[in-house]
Amino acid sequence: CSPATSLLHLGLTEALGSLMSSCENDHIQEAVTECLLSLLQIPTTKNRLREYCQKTDEPLFEWVSENIVAAIEGNNQLSMIQAMRDRAGVDGMTDDIGIVSSTPIIRLSIQLIGAMCEGQYTEMQNYLRLQDNKLVSHNFLVMLIRLLHCVRSGELLMDTMKAINSMISANDAAKETAIENDIVEILNTIIAAEAPANDFENAQEIKANAYALLSTLVEQSNMLSEFYDKVREELDIYTLQSEINSHLGLLGTEGGEKAQTAAFKGYALLKKISALEKKDYVGKLDEEISQKLKVGSVEVQWKGHLEKVYYPIPKSGQVRNKIREELKWGIDRKSKFDKQRDFLIWSQEVSLKSYIRLIKT
Description:
This protein is mainly alpha-helical. It has helices at 2-8, 12-22, 26-39, 43-55, 60-88, 104-117, 122-127, 140-150, 154-168, 172-180, 183-192, 200-218, 225-234, 237-249, 256-277, 285-292, 321-330, 336-360, and strands at residues 295-302, 305-312. It has a two-stranded antiparallel ribbon with strand order 1-2. Helix 5 crosses helix 6, helix 6 packs parallel to helix 9 and helix 12 (200-218) runs parallel beside helix 15. The radius of gyration is 23 Å and the shape is globular.
């Protein structure tokens, strides 16, 4: 982050924004977008990018808008053609007929929108819904929900849900816009959809993202009963319960790790709804979850209200990915002796870290 922060003072953010929207070479646009995504991990970049877009006629948002519109039009065309094929009794999917529905540039554009809002960045969330200093304003939240209605690619679907989640997190005005544009109805459809036989793992991850997005919609909603009622009217609790049972049934099978994540996120959502309505929507799931998953909770005070937040507890002896990577790449491999000695030292450190984390938990 240190060199990147220095580069910000040289106007790198502005230069990248200008280059991305003016260059017509797809490969350069991809590289530049990935650069911006990396820079957006630094909080000051978000401010610089927002100020840059507000003060100039830079067509960065126009470029992003064109990519999202292309995705919407392409996916709508594919859906219409697929419907015609289904009515005619023609087997197969219409994935390769020269219609642009998902490209690396489209995916990166959507990831960029999400990255701009990460960390509940309210100013950018609001600005991406209304650019009141420009002649043409784009409501990117509504555009992404429109894409969610028709998107066919699993990867693009997940990118879109993650971006929407970033855009509405802790922002009641954004959540209301999402609900008015039938987002709950779309998420119900995604959750109820059968997993394709050739894309099982993606299907588990897609549903996990749908649960996370619904959780964001209902968080802190006990303060806004009318707002929560709108969500609750559309939410299909029965399907949600059924899907969580399906995820639990897949534990221990191939792709079970993603099914476990989906089961936890769906369970946390049901617990949150049960607490808000003071009704038991979990029932026997509590017992089954306690047998198959380890779930902890902590009470958090938010805007004068006390809420319970749930989190998964790693299995005993499980090493986190970060520690695993440090262990894999940090071992001294100059000789067999050095490797064994260094490995033992690292093992002791990992055990100590795990013990400290267990005490904190």
